[in-house]
Amino acid sequence: MWGLLLLLVAAALVVSKLGYLEGIGIWTVLFTIGLLCFVVDGIFRRSFGEILFAIAFFIIINDELLGLEEITPWPVLGAALLGTIGLRLLFPKFSRKPKLVSVKMNGKEVNGDNKQPVFEETWDGSSVSYENAFGEAVKYLSGEISHVSTDNAFGSLKIYFSNAVLRGGSATVDVDNAFGSTVLFVPASWKVVVSTDNAFGSTKEQGHCNPDGENVLYIRGDISFGSLIVSYV
């Protein structure tokens, strides 16, 4: 995406100097190109929020050119928010990660937490998946793990790794966070490698991990209109 963005910006600079964009500010053109790249990126990442909000900001920046001053900025932003919520509810399986449809542990059905009906958990050996939507959930991992998958939308999800054991000395965490907050509490003695794609979102680390730790945790994922916090304890 960034390679394409730089090429389009270079082309826009040349075209503007040739007079083909007369009456249109160069910054408007550059922001428009950037937002269009976010739309394309959102399509590839299957992120409704990134697509709709990029379109909303595109309309806000070009409202005079499009003749849409009456619906900017708050009506179009509100429409983008409601549209994102509606699409995620209508198409829960559209995300790149498979959605969870039941609560299982070691292949057997178990009762979920009645206090958190929006939370779903699947445990299969050393792999565990968490899904949280429009609510709050706190989970404490224990035992041996090799892979953790999280999907948090419009909610708050906290996961503690203090009592977990990494199978073979390493494990991977895949995070999908949209319009919410995901917080991972990781032992400071572990080595942690964080690699996420942020679209109108942020990834932060609180404290410091051990760069020479024997246990290695790889954290990757997509953060859209929300935050991922890795807190070392």
Folded structure, characterized:
The chain is of the alpha/beta class and 233 residues long. It has 5 helices and 13 strands. The protein has an 8-stranded mixed sheet, covered by helices on one side. Strands 5-7-9-13-11 form a 5-stranded parallel sheet, with no helix packed on it. The two termini are 35 Å apart. The relative contact order is 0.11.
Alpha-beta classification: alpha/beta
* Total count of helical runs of at least 4 residues: 5
How much is the radius of gyration in Å?
A: 21 Å
Helix content: 25-40%
Tell me how many strands there are.
13
Mind describing the biggest β-sheet?
A: 8 strands, mixed
Write down the overall mean pLDDT.
80
Rough shape? Answer: elongated
How far is the N terminus from the C terminus? 35 Å
Strand order of the largest sheet: 2-1-3-4-6-8-12-10
Indicate the low-confidence ranges by residue numbers: 97-118
Strand composition percent: 35-45%
Encode the helix/strand succession as letters: HHHHHEEEEEEEEEEEEE
